[in-house]
Amino acid sequence: MAAITPEQRTADPDRRFLRRAMDEKLLERDEEQDLARRWKDGRDEDALHALTQAYMRLVISVASRFRKYGLPFADLVQEGNVGLMEAAARFEPDRDVRFSTYAAWWIRSAIQDYVLRNWSIVRTGTTSAQKTLFFNLRRVRAIIEDVGPTMTPEHRARTARILRVKESEVDTMSARLAAGDRSLNAPMGEDGDSTWQDFLADDRLAPEDDVMLRHDSAKRVNWVREAMQVLTEREQLIIRERKLKEDETVTLEALGERLGISKERVRQIEQQALGKLTTELKDRFGDPEAAGLIADA
Fold it and tell me: Could you give the CA distance from residue 285 to residue 63 in angstroms, rounded to a whole number?
């Protein structure tokens, strides 16, 4: 008798699990409501088990739609089960909706997130538009009969309208789906002596340029700090909040409320302060625009 391989040993429990799940009796609406209330109000684990076990077939059904992405089916089912448990935890029995309908959304969302995390070593689908494109672009291209290796401008525009995304996002995702992952150590050239990473450009500054840039930046900061001393406290506050903050700039309206003046008055003070600051910098250090201290208007 032939020996049982590890793959067969693993597959048999999976098949038994799938058969048991598909043989589970579907619940009526009243049964769903009763089990959901017992879990929500009394944390009855037997009720939770009965509720989720009855809809494992739903998990399997949804997971089967994502097999084409090349990920292990058992993993898809496992992620769908996570979504099912999340649905059970969040379900409100008093709402007029079937648990199966509610759970389907959570199951699909959990599996989609898993596919996006594991389809490629490069992170894909970080925005809702990218997620929509990832799961629907191939289907839409088939509908509009766009079968070429690259999308035509007309088909790209039509796809963007159908999926309600930008044309540039359609173009980016189309290229992303058409190209597989490439190893940085993949051999290149006729003799294979070079690797892909040997041809990647380093966009960082050279060490000497980086040191010079840091030195010049520190010098400019000190010049501006010294020149700021000619401004009043209110003018300094407005310039710091409007021109010198690295993160989000404070609006004229917000500063007006803070200082008890109108936003138009804040704008006037800002312009006056910039004029005084420019004059002071010229007197001390020459042309501030040439020195990179003040951008062109």
Answer: 68
pLDDT (tens digit per residue) in 241-267: 888 776 677 888 888 888 889 989 989
Q: Residue 250, class by beta-carbon neighbours within 10 Å (0-12 exposed, 13-18 middle, 19+ buried)? A: middle
Q: Where are the domains of the chain?
A: 12-118, 128-178, 207-285
Angle at 153 between CA 127 and CA 158, to 5 degrees: 60
Q: Which CATH class is domain 12-118?
A: mainly alpha
Structure token pair of residue 67: 């097999």
For residues 181 and 122, is the Cβ–Cβ distance under 8 A? yes
Q: From CA 292, how far away is CA 252, in angstroms rounded?
A: 25
DSSP 247-286: SPPPPHHHHHHHHTS-HHHHHHHHHHHHHHHHHHHHHHHS
Query: CATH code for 207-285?
Result: 1.10.10.10
